Amino acid sequence: MSLAKPAMRGLLAKRLRFHLPIAFALSLVAAAAFKYAVTEPRKQAYADFYKQYDAMKEFNAMKEAGVFQSVRPSGE
Amino acid sequence: MAHPTQLGFQDAASPVMEELLHFHDHALMIVFLISTLVLYIIIAMVSTKLTNKYILDSQEIEIVWTVLPAVILVLIALPSLRILYLMDEINDPHLTIKAMGHQWYWSYEYTDYEDLGFDSYMIPTQDLTPGQFRLLETDHRMVVPMESPVRVLVSAEDVLHSWAVPSLGVKMDAVPGRLNQTAFIASRPGVFYGQCSEICGANHSFMPIVVEAVPLEHFESWSSLMLEDA
């Protein structure tokens, strides 16, 4: 009984053909993960913060807490 | 201000800094994309004994790994240039302040209407009151009206300094004999900290910058009070 001749050439190319698509796919997944886990939530967080932001209310709260040097709390 | 173990930028307090934040996220996403690809390929290549001694021509892959990086660079360059030009727009500032760097303090001049000027020295650590930040507080803060475009003209009286406030997205070199211009809008009221960003001698680390953004009427009261005290 004779054995089949094993593959003797193109072994690295075969390995590359297997691994390169996985490499590209993984890198796209990493980019997408960063985009949807960090970039988009950050944009949304800023949008949400300023949507309901009342500058005068926040200013008065900070003023009463004594944060400012130019404006002191009402009691002082 | 920054907090211990902080890795990212401080929260943005101006529209320009928000744009810079989002651009940084975009660029970092591309960095992770390329790094993941390269790391995977490195691991795949070092974990095999297979080699190819006869790599010749390979037009297709050469075209791919020339065009793809060019496309990635364009994807980075377009938003980058957009923000660059955005930062250069000086949209009719309501106020101009001169920030002069000295060894080792800043002085601020508000000369639009009256002649108001004062020095801004760091508060030494032993003189801090509870709640104040070490090496960041100053005796006199640069007060600005919030939600108003402010132009800052930066220069120096002796050596190079640099006027920087990270949360406002501003940094401008203070060069003796030169007047540099920058501008910002404080999106919200608050206190924003920065530090001298150009080595200028022994106390380079001890000449911080504090910008206080308050509503216009309070800014006007403050400037009247400062003029009376002068």
List keywords for this structure.
heterodimer, A: 76 residues, mainly alpha, 2 helices, 67% helix, rod-shaped, B: 230 residues, alpha+beta, Helix Hairpins, Immunoglobulin-like, 2 domains, five-stranded mixed sheet, three-stranded mixed sheet, 3 helices, 10 strands, 33% helix, elongated
Model description:
Chain B: The chain crosses the membrane at residues 27-51, 63-85. Chain B: It is found in: Mitochondrion inner membrane. Chain B: Its cofactor is Cu cation. Chain B: Belongs to the cytochrome c oxidase subunit 2 family. The complex is a heterodimer of chains A (76) and B (230). Chain A has helices at 11-51, 55-64. Chain A is mainly α. The longest helix of chain A is centred in the middle third of the chain and has 41 residues, at 11-51. Chain A starts with 10 loop residues before the first helix and ends in a 12-residue tail after the last helix. With 230 residues, chain B is α+β, with helices and mostly antiparallel strands. Chain B folds into two domains: 13-86, Helix Hairpins (Orthogonal Bundle); 93-227, Immunoglobulin-like (Sandwich). In chain B, 33% of the residues lie in helices and 25% in strands. In chain B, strands 3-2-1-5-8 form a five-stranded mixed sheet. In chain B, helix 1 (15-46) runs antiparallel to helix 2 (59-88). The two termini of chain B are 30 Å apart. The model of chain B has no long low-confidence stretch (mean pLDDT 95). The interface between A and B is large, with 34 and 39 residues.
Beta-strand content bin of chain B: 25-35%
Identify low-pLDDT runs of chain B: none
**Topology pattern of chain B, helix = H, strand = E:** HHEEEEEEEEEEH
**What is the straight-line distance between the termini of chain A?**
103 Å
Chain pair sharing the greatest interface: A-B, 34 and 39 residues
**Would you identify the CATH H-level superfamily of the largest domain in chain B?**
Cupredoxins -  blue copper proteins
User: Which descriptor suits the 3D outline of chain B?
Assistant: elongated
**Overall residue-averaged pLDDT value of chain A:** 93
Mind describing the biggest β-sheet of chain A?
none
Number of structural domains of chain B? 2
Radius of gyration of chain B: 24 Å
Could you say which overall geometry of chain A the principal axes of the C-alpha atoms support?
rod-shaped
SSE sequence of chain A, one letter per element: HH
Question: Which regions of chain A have little confidence, pLDDT < 50, spanning 5+ residues?
Answer: none
Q: Quickly count the helices of chain A.
A: 2
Q: Provide the spatial order of strands within the biggest beta sheet of chain B.
A: 3-2-1-5-8
CATH class of the largest domain in chain B: Mainly Beta
Overall average pLDDT of chain B: 95
> What percent of residues of chain A are in strands?
under 5%
Structural category of chain B is alpha+beta
Per CATH, which architecture of the largest domain in chain B? Sandwich
Domain Cytochrome oxidase subunit II copper A binding (chain B): 92-225
Domain Cytochrome oxidase subunit II transmembrane region profile (chain B): 1-91
Protein name (chain B): Cytochrome c oxidase subunit 2
Membrane topology (chain B): Multi-pass membrane protein
